[in-house]
Amino acid sequence: MSFYGEDKAKIQSFELETQKEGNIILITSTSPTKYGEGKTTLAISLNDALNKLNYKSIVALREPSLGPVFGIKGGACGGGKAKIVPEMDINLHFTGDIHAITTANNLLSAIIDNHIFQGNELGIVEITHERCLDLNDRSLRTLILNDKETHFNISTASEMMAILGLAKNEEDLKRRVGNILVGYTKDKKEVLAKDLKCVNALMLLLKEAIKPNVVKSLENNLALVHGGPFANIAHGTCSVISLKYAITHFPLTIVEAGFGSDMGGVKFFDIVSRTNKELTPKLVVINTTLQSLYYNGENNLEQGIGNLDYHIENMQKYCENLIIVLNKHEEDKKEDIEFVKEHVLNRNLLFSVSEGYLKGSDGSLDLAKIVVNLTKKEIKETQYTYELEENLEEKINKFCQKNYGAKQIIYTEKARKKLELIKDPLPICVAKTQYSITDDAKKLGYPKEFTMTVSDIKLFKGAGFITVYFGSILTMPGLSKEANYLKMEELE
What we know:
alpha/beta, twelve-stranded mixed β-sheet
């Protein structure tokens, strides 16, 4: 361990043989709302509860991005009595991982520009690599540099973040960094980062960032916090390295995937465990709240429960072992909870109520017992909705029809050109609104018979996936009028 003060550390040795494999418990959710559904709180309280019952477990979470901390979200350390600490440090600079990713990403941009300035020996005519910054700054979405239009992404949506999150070890990180597609020549030949002979320099900036971070919960149970890719743009979960470390040392590992099952949940199976079979979840916990179900039913719970049905059916495509958890708020009505419980039991599924926010580990003891029993149940091999060798259009169409229920997929002219250009047999990573199963944030609940529009497609060769953009998805958020920075107080 390398300690950062008294309450956080980095694991120095993580070159692990994962022959001793623990069980992965994946936490996902129904479609999110602006209020938050408490997946992180649930994950932390479940880990605390398992430890209280004397089961050896650990929770593996993403690092918070600075942008949302000062924007609308306000942090990502759990809440109430189910938190990881030191909360302020984790939410702000933590151990500097995201700063290192930002710097490495932008150094590569500077190297590309310098190569062109110094004579452009490689003949780059189109630059595909973009700069990033870990803040919500809408003015950086589109700007002119060197007389060319360019764009900034938030750092957690950058390919460099995805690479760090998906790398299996230092050697794999170096390979992936070298494979970043930086641009094309006039005859559409790919130019990669390794062609610029800069990989060693970029690795120097990432040498500490690749090491997983360790903190504790309020109840003094260990938590790994490493990597922070957004789930509505990137793959949305903590690093592969931290998960491999966890399953080597703990029989039970709880991992949270961002937003709903249509986002982080599916991507965990499709991107993370597809190439790391030992990280295939043994069971899936679908987290929901009455607030979310009412919102998705436009203030009608009986209508909103359809959103839960979608997420159940979506996760059943990948895993038979499901638990539905109602993350209880203090003001929730007993009759509403009973309605959701009866609905779930009628589907022959397991149900539990968690009060982790109010009670910490005591609020998730019932859930912990169900989890332990379900980990003893065997699982079938994961069935995917497309094969990697299929052409890109077939993959996109199958994924959207089978996972979202889309009736038709429309491609813009820009996207059509990318279909012809990109031939790599890689998984797809959907970038769309997180607030709806569709690409329209206003279509709530469980929409049917809808059309989705592919606006752009980008090859992230280093990360190892192809991002498919739907609608007007933003990769650089802005600050809202009631942003969280207005509520912050100065430290004494």
